Each structure stands twice: as structure tokens, then as C-alpha cells.
Amino acid sequence: MIKFAGLIKLPGDIWQLDLKERGLPGWTAGYLVKGTGSKDWMLIETGPASSAPRILAAVDSLGISPEQIRYIGVTHIHLDHAGGLGVAARYFQKAGIWVHPRGIRHLIDPTRLIAGSRAVYGEEKMQLYGEVLPVTPARLHPAREGTQIRLGERVLEVWETPGHAKHHVCYYDHQTKGLFSGDAAGVYLPRTSKLLKRPILRPATPGPDFNGTLMLQDLYKIALSKVQNLYFAHFGAAAPAQLLIEIVTGQLLMHMHIAAGYRGKENAQQQLCTALQKYTLKGLCSCLGDKNIAADLVGNEMDLMLQPLYDSADGLLLNT
User: Fold this and answer.
1) pTM of the model
2) Domain 7-318's class?
3) Integer CA distances (angstroms), 103 to 26, 165, 172, 215, in order
4) Alpha carbons 231 and 157: distance in angstroms, whole number
5) Which residues, 6+ apart, have CB-to-CB distance to 26 below 8 Å?
6) Mean pLDDT of 40-69
């Protein structure tokens, strides 16, 4: 075994792994879930292909053999969540791969996925994400509402959550009453939340297929469920789930309201992005105190909070 930095052991035999998307710490998390009464494990979220060495190092540091990774689940096929599936599948050759049925064909033949991602992200970012490899059809399983994935006595249940993207699912862990939420519950900033002593989140609403009505339904479902803990892909574990969902639901409604005033305007996406950034900073600055010191402490997280708002503005403007 080798030592590996970037693993956090969570209650309930779950290990949170910093995938360091594009080399950035604290942007994207993967999770390794240990079976109960079993030696089987499940990996949830691979991140982009460039994150694969970190997954392999983490698995090695925990003393897990490749054959013990029985399942890989991704919440959706955006490259920051699933771009590394093809690479991971070649290393964990016994693992069945769970993905929403709408995403399966794009993993078998990722040509359109790559082209669409390149159009959104640009060539430089695509290079940082690494090569997207195809996945063998026989390895893929459709993650549908209510599907149960068993790791010995441990059960993870698929919840379809199509508001962020048509191919988005969450995985509910009955053992910890925790939900691997992908982007359905938004983006969470752990260090900033600790600094300000209150949860700091924002909704994730990128184009092309964000649907506000469906995302609100997803959030209502989570809030009214037995979920106590949220395992965010961006970034990390947080609780209590009900409070977090209430916060991000209010933010989503406000973002949708703000966006309504920019539809049809010239340069609407940039104008809306600027408006969303100002609105977000207004809420943060009221309790940041010394902003320069705070920015030094949580600078990476501020980038995660503000930079993707351009893509979120696109989704809000397309939403009807």
C-alpha cells in the first residue's frame, strides 16, 4: 500500500476522495463506499479522465484490489463527473457501471459527448480533462428510479433527478440515510461554510437541458425524504440535508426570477452572469468581515462559486 493524501473517512464506511479536477483541489469529489458483510466496494463519480490516477492511488492506499470494486456509479455524464469512466472501467474490470439510460449510448460511443463538451468548454479545458474513452456495452447497467444496488447487506437506491440534466440520477444510501447528490442539490463550499458558520451553496443550472420545474421537484423530493446527509460532488459531505435543500431551493427560485428579466436582451448570457455574481457576492460580503483575508482563505472555493455562473446563466436563459 502507498500513502495517499486527499482521502477523508466519513461515518458509515464511506471515503471521500478529492479528484482534483483540472488540478484544482476542492472542486470535484468522488466517493468509495464499502459493502456491509461483504468485501465489495462501489465507486461513485470518476471525475474526468485526468483524475483516474488519483482514484487508483486512493484504492491502493486503502488496500482494495481492483476486483473488489464491484460497481461504478455516475450521477450524470458531464465530463467532470463521468469523463473518466472509460479509463476506470479498464482498470476495474469486474465492475458493473451504472448510468441513467439516456447516457448509455454516449458512453458506448462518446463522439457526440466529446463534440458537445468541446463546444461548451473549449479546447484548453478539454485537454485538462483528458481523453474520453468508450465503455463496452456489456459493462453498462441502466440506473432507473427505484433500482437497488447491493453491496452485501448495504443497499443503494437510484433516484431519477432530471432537473440538472435529463440523464441525472442520485444514489440514496439506506445505511447512512445519505444521498450522493451529484449536481441535483447544487454546489457546496465546505471551507467557506466553516468560516462563516453557516451553509454556503448555490444551484447548478447549466445548459442545454436544465429544467427549473423539474429541479424544484427534485429538491422537494429530497427535502421530504428520510435523507439526513448530502454527499456533494462539488464538494464534500454536509448536513443537515433539509436545511441545505431549503437554502438552495430559495436560491434557485431567486436565480430563475433574476433570469426572467434578461431573456431577449442583447448579450443576455454575460449580463445575467454578472447579475448572478453580484447577487451572490452581496449575500457573502455582508458576513465576510475582512474580505481580503477571507478571500485568501477560501479563494479556490470562490472560483467554484462564481466562475461556473456563466454556464448556469445559459441554462437559466434556455429554461422555459
Assistant:
1) 0.94
2) alpha beta
3) 26, 10, 20, 18
4) 14
5) 18, 190, 191, 235, 236, 300, 301, 304
6) 96
Q: Are 2 and 61 in contact (CB under 8 A)?
A: yes
Residue (of 113, 94, 93, 92) closest to 102 by Cα position = 113
Does residue 77 have a pLDDT over 60? Answer: yes
Residue the block writes with cell 463519480: 45
As given in the structure block, the three cell numbers for residue 215 are: 429541479
Torsion sign across C-alpha atoms 298, 301, 305, 306? positive
157 and 172 Cβ atoms separated by less than 8 Å: yes
**Are 101 and 137 contacting, i.e. CB atoms less than 8 angstroms apart?**
no
The pLDDT tens digits for 235-292 are 999 999 999 999 999 999 999 999 999 999 999 999 999 999 999 988 887 766 655 5
Could you report how far apart the first and last alpha carbons of the chain are, in Å? 52
Give the pLDDT band (50/70/90) at residue 300: confident
pLDDT tens-digit readout, 211-235: 999 999 999 999 999 999 999 999 9
Nearest CA-CA partner of 200 in 293, 281, 278, 296: 281
Q: Which three cell numbers stand for residue 184?
A: 441535483
